User: What shape does this take?
Amino acid sequence: MIRVLVADDQAAVRAGLVLILRSAPDMEVVGEAADGRRAVALARELLPDVVLMDVRMPELDGIAATRELAGTGVDVLVLTTFDVDEYVFGALRAGAAGFLLKDIDADRLLDAVRTVASGEGVLAPAVTRRLISAFATRPRTSATLPPPGLAELTPREREVFRCLGEGMSNGQIAARLSMAETTTKTHVSRILGKLGLRSRVQAAILAQELAEEGRADVPPHDEAGEPL
Assistant: This one.
């Protein structure tokens, strides 16, 4: 049984999410929170498998709440909309397992929760590409410091890493690199481990930052996916 905590300050939205989750035979809603502070307290007390976390909440916003839950073993799915990209950048660094749009349909919501509960990240490619692009074009005061583990990536892992930087799903990566999707999943897991990252989102952002800075080890790609 997947244990889920729902955090959203809008009662109607929260009720809708709870209704959808309770319709799934393999899920249990263990708690609800109307603000970020309560969400953190309940998550630490109940230790759910997944927290659905709204971005804009009183007391403590969803980004800060996600950051406070880092290292607790609780995975966070951030609920967002396209018009709040600026509020999501912090969650990328905080280790959010993924992002969902609030207008997501019921089946995709349930699939996303199951995916995160199984230890994987959820990246809707259209959303992810926009977030990555917006993040990469923000002014930075200094160059990105690549993690030591970057040098440990194999040539194949570097190819997968570049694909992550384009916001590609496992299926899309598998198709581009002509490999099985299960093999792609294994490569992604190894990349996260070597780079000391908690989610695919963090890997995608790092790959994009390095590409934007013209690092030779992660060259940028054109729209067709070919090295520039």
